[in-house]
Amino acid sequence: MRAVQRLVPTLLVAAGLGACSGGDVQQPQISIAAVVSSVTLDGEGTQGTLEQSALPAEGAAPALNVSSPAAAINGGSFLMSVTSAEPFSEVVLGLQSAPDYYKVVLPAPATSAGLLVTLDPGAPEGSLTLYVVGGTSPTQYGPVLPRSMSVLRVGSGDVQVSVAWNSAADVDLHVIDPSGEEIYYGSRSSTSGGELDLDSNAACASDQPRNENTVWPTGEAPTGTYTVRLDYWDACNALQTDYVVTVWVKGQEPKVFSGTFTGEGEHGGAGSGIDITTFNR
Asked: Fewer beta carbons under 10 A from the terminal one: N or C of the chain?
């Protein structure tokens, strides 16, 4: 049986995104681009555009229902599900008092959409509140909805590979470096300098982050081909588990992959799981 071991970073309150006894406090005029690297429509690949304006004023567009995780990591991605009783044609994502926001336009009006939100590797640790708005035209928007989560600080550098998922399942990240050495829960570091610095939900002991992260610090990642695999170790009674894998390579744009696991899980070890991607540094 897999041992229950966790590497969870200590939470610190970050200026501009920290919480105090009076609730979340947002630093005025912090750009959302300093916290969120990109917003993409899941399954479509449509990228959100960065608009240089304050959040739209509330109008007659339908209200949204928004589901997002309780925790995320810097440099990682997560799925934000958006639904409404009436069709909407775009979704806005921003920060309170920010001078800009992301706007994602749907291919056609719909009552549901999934957004893949990728945090910048430099995103600070602490409490983050994102504001979500639905729209039906460039001038009609609905109520502004706050969604709060904790941002956990993990390692970033030359190479950062992470996974996030949305159930109590035990999902394991496996990254194979150019020499063929595999980093996963059973071998948390490699001679090339890579390290699994966050391991979550080990053996169904739900610890809430539901993220795992493997990193090669700046100046340590070898050149060559890397392979990313994902293993559904145990469903932990979840009927379905949606996942998002994010790959950052220094000097390159992030790559984001999403999918779904079903079944009971395979309790795999070294070499287990499905291929997600290969990449070169």
From this structure: N
